[in-house]
């Protein structure tokens, strides 16, 4: 494990407590954007619609939202010299409700769902689940809905009927991961009528929906000294929340413009009109800069930098052989710089220096993460956005256990360290 700085005990858990509240308020990307907007507006930021004229270079804080993605920024000096971007994502692996969801089998009412992202199936079995998401109405307006109580369950087959379950079980995503929500005969339209009623709208006026299963267990501290923090959606609301906190706190940045870019759809490849592979961020940066001069934009981008923040794998105590023998991040050790020779993570020497300067400015410990040569890891928005913008980009994140599970685990101090890192990049 490579580290820097001194890991000092952090007895103030206010940041992680606030993260817990943010997670509870943000069961879907659409709710996360709404909660982020609420916090930004309370801090004086103003929402800009993409269809409106924008006040290019106007001092102060602004943000815009598109399809579960949010980009926010604050201008101190109108003579913008560079952008300092903290990137994250708002989505999480789960199950998405199909367009016509009412199913029935053997006297049970069920809901048809589709796997969204890299879901470890077993972690979602026998859990009380709710449903949340958005309804798009006849007039094009959007209504958020969250049924915040137990509603669904994906039942496990009893061990008596599957004696080999502990020797490995592969579940069929179409036939064996369908949640139940009642007994009796399925009636077409019943589920969406129920959801519309929960949202306080007429089901006949619902013309589209994006609904997802939601893990209900509230965030909690673990351990004798509460050194660990468990929750669903640590990947990647830890980064979205850290970016919001740092952006609100960033003042006196001069000609550098701090930006938070939290994208939807990272878990399924980002190839949407609002994802990291879309022109959404570039369009916003051009409008913030103002004018149509490609030369001015190119010079500004060349002076800019992005920090792509996502969770990474902490060394697993029961499977240490799955990790590089030297680079073994642990909870409480601070954020990681994520390195890949094949650019699965967008980090090289220049990027490493940017990370270390930011960590040094923040006065926090840090760690290095590298995959085993024979176990390729995932990737992030870093290589995508860095390539899209032609901008220096470094990949960072928190070390966690049980990534993509319905219950993930990190160090209690690390979310605060991550926000400090973002602020260090914004202000130095």
Automatic annotation (TrEMBL):
One of its GO terms (biological process) is proteolysis. Belongs to the peptidase M18 family. GO terms for cellular component: cytoplasm. InterPro entries: Peptidase_M18, Peptidase_M18_dom2. Keywords: Aminopeptidase, Hydrolase, Metal-binding, Metalloprotease, Protease, Zinc. Its cofactor is Zn(2+). It comes from Glycomyces albidus. The keyword Iron does not apply. PANTHER family: ASPARTYL AMINOPEPTIDASE. The keyword rRNA-binding does not apply. It comes from the Bacteria. Pfam families: Peptidase_M18. GO terms for molecular function: aminopeptidase activity; metallopeptidase activity; zinc ion binding. Its EC number is 3.4.11.-. This is M18 family aminopeptidase.
């Amino acid at each position: 494990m490579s580290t820097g700085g001194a890991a000092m005990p952090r007895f103030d858990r206010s940041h992680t407590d606030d993260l817990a509240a943010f997670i509870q308020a943000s069961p879907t990307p659409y709710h996360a954007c709404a909660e982020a907007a609420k916090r930004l507006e309370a801090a004086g930021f103003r929402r800009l619609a993409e269809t409106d004229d924008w006040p290019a270079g106007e001092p102060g804080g602004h943000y815009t939202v598109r399809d579960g993605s949010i980009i926010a920024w604050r201008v101190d000096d109108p003579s913008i010299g560079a952008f300092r971007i903290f990137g994250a994502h708002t989505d999480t692996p789960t199950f998405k409700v199909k367009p016509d969801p009412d199913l029935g089998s053997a006297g049970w009412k069920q809901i048809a769902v589709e796997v969204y992202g890299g879901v470890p199936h077993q972690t979602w079995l026998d859990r009380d689940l709710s449903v949340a998401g958005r309804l798009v109405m006849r007039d094009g307006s959007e209504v958020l809905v969250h049924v915040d109580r137990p509603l669904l369950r994906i039942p496990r087959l009893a061990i008596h009927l599957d004696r080999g379950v502990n020797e490995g079980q592969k579940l069929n995503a179409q036939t064996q991961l369908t949640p139940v929500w009642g007994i009796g005969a399925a009636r077409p339209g019943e589920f969406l009528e129920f959801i519309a009623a929960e949202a306080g709208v007429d089901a006949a006026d619902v013309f589209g929906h994006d609904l997802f299963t939601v893990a209900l267990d509230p965030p909690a501290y673990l351990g004798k000294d509460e050194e660990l923090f468990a929750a669903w959606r640590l990947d990647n609301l830890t980064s979205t929340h850290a970016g919001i906190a740092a952006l609100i706190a960033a003042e006196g940045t001069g000609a550098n413009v701090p930006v938070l870019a939290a994208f939807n759809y990272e878990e399924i490849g980002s190839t949407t009109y609002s994802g990291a592979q879309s022109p959404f961020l570039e369009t916003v940066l051009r409008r913030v800069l103002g004018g149509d001069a490609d030369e001015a934009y190119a010079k500004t981008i060349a002076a800019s930098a992005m920090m792509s923040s996502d969770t990474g794998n902490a060394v697993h105590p029961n499977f240490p052989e799955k990790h590089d023998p030297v680079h073994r991040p642990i909870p409480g050790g601070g954020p990681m710089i994520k390195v890949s020779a094949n650019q699965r993570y967008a980090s090289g020497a220049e990027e490493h220096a940017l990370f270390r300067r930011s960590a040094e400015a923040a006065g926090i410990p840090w760690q290095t993460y590298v995959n085993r040569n024979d176990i390729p890891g995932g990737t992030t928005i870093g290589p995508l956005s860095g390539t899209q913008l032609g901008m220096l980009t470094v990949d960072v994140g928190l070390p966690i256990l049980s990534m993509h599970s319905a219950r993930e685990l990190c160090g209690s101090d690390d979310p605060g360290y991550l926000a400090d890192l973002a602020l260090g990049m914004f202000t130095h």
